[in-house]
């Protein structure tokens, strides 16, 4: 039995620079990952199957459309005789939440299939299958901090960043990514004039690094707040939390994150928020 984690993806920044002629939006995003998330295992064998359990399993769906199965079928189409097998997904991350849960599950499936078949992690067919499965899947393959560009397919070098103590909040309202991009109202081929993405490199001290991240934005935040106004409340609660250094939405929402100076400050804030809003999903995380 092979096993791997599928962590949440957090867009520390998400700049939309235009809309390509293929309809996808061109973006620049600094992506980091949490430690915890979903867990995926594979018992290698000839037949592909998926069994899902866990608190958010019902929302993820266990049909043929599940991204674990889509990624696996795509890789099998590229590699004759690929060993497949029985996947078990323990689903914990909120679904349609802007933290790439399904994309991370798909990437985890590709990593397990690579292991089961003796493929090198850098095998181009893994990347191609990831790309064909969804815009966020390539960055989730390595699951390490880096810049993501293009529609998500162009990945910068791995970055060594300070570990950021954080609180994540999802208010329980699913948000459909396609709708949020649509709300930007950009025409294919249209570019956006907006301040450039801050230059992010490895090894910056935490204070400087955070100042650079603060100069960035999430260009989907306004559209998502219109679609799900509770995001405005989430951001206000995070920004009002004692010790919050920066709060922003991830991806197309509705999950938002706040960065704190220490894990202890994050844990204290999370406890207070849980008491205030028991219906929200509130998690501490070390973003890296
Ligand atoms: C918003 C982000 O989460 C940021 O990391 C991603 O760009 C979205 O990644 P994703 O959910 O894996 O996206 P996909 O499942 O490939 O696409 C969902 C829909 O979002 C829109 N989409 C997605 C990515 C992108 N660069 N431009 C887009 O316009 C398209 O309408 C697409 O039909
Ligand atoms: N394994 C999976 N986990 C979660 N959702 C899945 C999975 N497979 C398919 N889906 C479907 O994918 C859609 C997007 O779910 P997901 O949780 O990946 O969204 P997201 O967090 O907004 O992703 P992103 O940040 O990449 O836009 C949902 O409609 C869901 O039903």
From TrEMBL:
Belongs to the GHMP kinase family. IspE subfamily. This is 4-diphosphocytidyl-2-C-methyl-D-erythritol kinase. Catalyzes the phosphorylation of the position 2 hydroxy group of 4-diphosphocytidyl-2C-methyl-D-erythritol. Residues 66-143 form the GHMP kinase N-terminal domain. ATP binds at residues 94-104. One of its GO terms (molecular function) is ATP binding. Residues 227-274 form the GHMP kinase C-terminal domain. The active site is at residues 9, 136. Pathway: Isoprenoid biosynthesis; isopentenyl diphosphate biosynthesis via DXP pathway; isopentenyl diphosphate from 1-deoxy-D-xylulose 5-phosphate: step 3/6. Keywords: ATP-binding, Isoprene biosynthesis, Kinase, Nucleotide-binding, Transferase. It comes from Methylocystis parvus. GO terms for biological process: isopentenyl diphosphate biosynthetic process, methylerythritol 4-phosphate pathway; terpenoid biosynthetic process. Its EC number is 2.7.1.148. PANTHER family: 4-DIPHOSPHOCYTIDYL-2-C-METHYL-D-ERYTHRITOL KINASE, CHLOROPLASTIC. InterPro entries: GHMP_kinase_C_dom, GHMP_kinase_C_sf, GHMP_kinase_N_dom, IspE, Ribosomal_Su5_D2-typ_SF, Ribsml_uS5_D2-typ_fold_subgr. It catalyses: 4-CDP-2-C-methyl-D-erythritol + ATP = 4-CDP-2-C-methyl-D-erythritol 2-phosphate + ADP + H(+).
């Amino acid at each position: 039995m092979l096993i791997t984690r599928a962590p949440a993806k957090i867009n520390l920044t998400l700049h939309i620079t235009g809309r390509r002629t293929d309809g996808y939006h061109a973006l620049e995003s600094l992506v980091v990952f949490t430690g915890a998330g979903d867990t995926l295992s594979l018992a290698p064998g000839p037949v592909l199957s998926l069994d899902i359990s866990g608190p958010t399993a019902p929302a993820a769906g266990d049909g043929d459309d599940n991204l674990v199965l889509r990624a696996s079928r795509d890789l099998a189409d590229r590699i004759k005789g690929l060993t497949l097998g029985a996947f078990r997904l323990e689903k914990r991350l909120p679904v349609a939440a802007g933290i790439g849960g399904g994309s991370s599950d798909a990437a985890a499936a590709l990593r397990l299939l690579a292991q089961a078949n003796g493929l090198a992690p850098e095998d181009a067919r893994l990347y191609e299958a990831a790309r064909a499965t969804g815009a966020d899947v390539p960055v989730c393959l390595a699951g390490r901090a880096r810049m993501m560009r293009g529609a998500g397919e162009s990945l910068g070098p791995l970055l060594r960043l300070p570990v950021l103590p954080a609180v994540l909040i999802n208010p329980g309202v699913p948000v459909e990514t396609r709708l949020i991009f649509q709300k930007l109202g950009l025409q294919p081929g249209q570019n956006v004039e907006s301040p450039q993405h801050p230059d992010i490199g490895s090894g910056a001290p935490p204070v400087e690094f955070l100042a650079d991240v603060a100069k960035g934005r999430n260009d989907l935040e306004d559209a998502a707040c219109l679609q799900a106004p509770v995001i405005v409340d989430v951001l206000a609660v995070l920004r009002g939390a004692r010790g919050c250094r920066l709060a922003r939405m991830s991806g197309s929402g509705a999950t938002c994150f706040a960065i704190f100076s220490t894990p202890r400050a994050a844990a204290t804030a999370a406890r207070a928020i849980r008491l205030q809003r028991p219906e929200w999903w509130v998690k501490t995380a070390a973003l890296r």
